[in-house]
């Protein structure tokens, strides 16, 4: 039986879906996390504790484990683990993009440098040291601009500034965010932030799978809610895209060129792009799959999940089809409206009864402390819909969300 190592941070939403994919494929799954599992002593063959901040050390630990437990594949399920997964794969000769490529993609400044050098359309940008005086740092930065941490994800700490006063306030706010106990950054990510020009236009997300250096587009999501700031909380994703076919082709071409410029060659890719009259602009190319529970919108071939596709590729198993189901689909990441403590959620039954709604998953639990963006990173939950057209799906998601009531004190 093939053995697979899944790198599963304790904070990830992805554990259940990846474990289900492993069970479907009949593989022996080893769960690796940054904290010891309570069952690790009883089941040492199925649990590992790894320091994801030390990829080389984690690779050495897994290499030692593999001498008595041969490993066929390793998969990092989100941003916190992709570099470590690449280091392990490189050490063991497993399928993965190279460590250098993944590391570059994980650092927003290094990614910008690489893409700009390849002539790809990216926003004008500057890396700023957090120890700088923010008033002096604002010199030479055009407005409006967007400031963001180098390595955080889920739009955490991404804030627009329209003038010098806002720039100074945002600079200090991000600096304070990086000092929070629930933020783990190191190296350049703890010493710098990125300032880049705000790019107007519509935003899309491309979900892809790299196989032997070739990018296969699995889905192109529209984001119908405007993302103009000051914060950039994502809400609704709908696929297939309603953009004209020629625009979609240009988006795909730019994504292919971006992956090639970064040196990414194997595994999932989640790319974020803005589109305006000048064409597609690359905002981010992440060497991992879509976050949260959003992958549940996607089915391929005869009902294969995105996680199963990813594991099949990593294991070197055949993939029958990369074609997404024909029906339109979408997800709403339910935003946190304000800080506080969640008391209860009402209206779930009414939301599920909306025509086209496939599921409502409330992931926040009663008495949980809620922190909205830009300091927070979690959602209240996820709403999933399917329908004949993207417009029908979007309408169902909005209708279902309107029926939910959150008691936050």
Q: What report would you give on this structure?
A:
This protein is an alpha+beta fold. Helix content is 29%, strand content 28%. The chain contains 12 helices and 21 strands. The chain has helices at 15-25, 55-66, 82-92, 99-106, 108-117, 134-137, 164-177, 188-191, 245-262, 306-315, 348-352, 390-402, and strands at 3-7, 28-33, 47-49, 73-76, 125-129, 145-149, 159-161, 192-197, 202-211, 214-222, 236-239, 267-276, 279-286, 299-300, 304-305, 328-334, 340-346, 357-362, 369-370, 381-387, 405-408. The protein has a 4-stranded parallel β-sheet with strand order 3-2-1-4, sandwiched between helices. Helix 2 packs across helix 3 (82-92) and helix 3 runs antiparallel to helix 4 (99-106). The chain is globular. The model has no long low-confidence stretch (mean pLDDT 96).
Give a brief description.
The protein is α+β, with helices and mostly antiparallel strands and 409 residues long.
Task: Draw up the topology in text.
Blueprint: E1 3-7, H1 15-25, E2 28-33, E3 47-49, H2 55-66, E4 73-76, H3 82-92, H4 99-106, H5 108-117, E5 125-129, H6 134-137, E6 145-149, E7 159-161, H7 164-177, H8 188-191, E8 192-197, E9 202-211, E10 214-222, E11 236-239, H9 245-262, E12 267-276, E13 279-286, E14 299-300, E15 304-305, H10 306-315, E16 328-334, E17 340-346, H11 348-352, E18 357-362, E19 369-370, E20 381-387, H12 390-402, E21 405-408
Parallel strand pairs: 1-2, 1-4, 2-3
Antiparallel strand pairs: 5-8, 6-7, 6-8, 9-10, 9-12, 11-16, 12-13, 14-15, 16-20, 17-19, 17-21, 18-20
